[in-house]
Amino acid sequence: MVASSTEGGTGAGRRVAVIGAGIVGLCSARYLLDRGFEVEVFEPREPRSACSFGNAGVLSSWSCVPLSMPGEWKLAPKWLLDPLGPLSLRWSYLPLVTPWLLKFVRAGRRDRIDALSDAMFVLNNPCVEHYRELLRGSGHEKLIQDSAYVHVYRNPKDADIDAPAYRLRRRHGASVRLLDAGDIGDIEPAISREYRAGIMIENQGRTTNPARLCRVIAEDVRRRGGTITRAEVHALIPRQGDGVALELGRETRVADKVVVAAGAWSKRLVEPLGLRVPLESGRGYHIMFNDSGVALNNSVVDDDLHFVASSMETGLRITGIMEFAGLDAPETQRRYSILAKLAARMFPDLEGTEHDRWMGHRPVIPDTLPVIGPLPGQPSVLLAFGHGQLGLTGAPMTGRIVAALAAGERPNIDLTPYRPERFD
Ligand SMILES: Cc1cc2nc3c(=O)[nH]c(=O)nc-3n(C[C@H](O)[C@H](O)[C@H](O)COP(=O)(O)OP(=O)(O)OC[C@H]3O[C@@H](n4cnc5c(N)ncnc54)[C@H](O)[C@@H]3O)c2cc1C
User: What is the pTM of this model?
Assistant: First the structure.
């Protein structure tokens, strides 16, 4: 594990620019401040548009299962053709996304899974403890709650505790319990009786408001002397010797180090610097119901239809869908009505009104691991993006690693699996 966030403290008098105020940028900024760096975060958009604000709030400590598992890509055609399916593709985008898809299939090679799984575990497992530490004394501690992850199935045969995904979790120490229909009724009385079996992953966490969690960390960054500047970084120009210039349109800033934490937009900043990284937007959607009359005690995932239901401070949230259509295409309105249908199936007594619709760009990389580390040949540019469906979970550990690297330390975990040049 990376040593304590304050260890070292070698940042005094040195400036770090963080690009992006999503959860990865904010956690990085916070840990950099702990080490004494002067920190300025750049963010051009309304908070709502970042992926970190509308997610399912699952702090998925036991997530160590790569998205591309051996042979699973064969399910893709079925998912694409199912109108309620979890995968979607704008067909005009197919030529652009094909190289990514091929890398995704290759990432699911049987002999690579254990190593990918270990690297996911290192990033994700300590998240609950790290968030609790970040919020201690803030008055917002209740934003992080203990939770299980309850996977539910209609057909008991599908609840296979010996399936590779559960074997991987158990190998890392997860406590995994098989549930029958009666158990599900006891644990989550609000959900439909059509679920006949479940698998409960115990001892993880959830946040009941990812947007407020980001705001609380952003306030903390400011309180500790960091600044958050409303500006887009158009280009990065590494300077000879040390340091980086940041082009902000009319202005240029200079920093000793830069952290690129711009989520799915990061490729636009690093490609001109010579790094080819297979980063795509995996667009996800949510709908929210207020006064729904429904409360969940845990995060619940329908493993047949691949969506997540979460009780939030602001109502019931249904999240799902992985859509490949790029960063600039408008939202696909049909996705919202699909989520509404799924919600009605899971919650037969659902009341209230749908009061919010949201789409966000998951920064997805074919092997499920983010890119964390210095840009090859440019030690002043640190990269921290590509956390896919697990960025809320992986952000605190990523922030710790980034802060250690900026301070010139070698973190005591193996960073090889996350290295930016692994796709060459
Ligand atoms: C529907 C859905 C459900 C999810 N559920 C979960 C979950 O339950 N648990 C979990 O762990 N993860 C979940 N995720 C994934 C998680 O939300 C993301 O992995 C995470 O938010 C990514 O954080 P980020 O900081 O890398 O990116 P973002 O939150 O997208 O932030 C990147 C920021 O960079 C800014 N930026 C971009 N370009 C520039 C530039 N040139 N200059 C300055 N700033 C720039 C953007 O405006 C943006 O604010 C979910 C995602 C979706 C879509």
Answer: 0.96
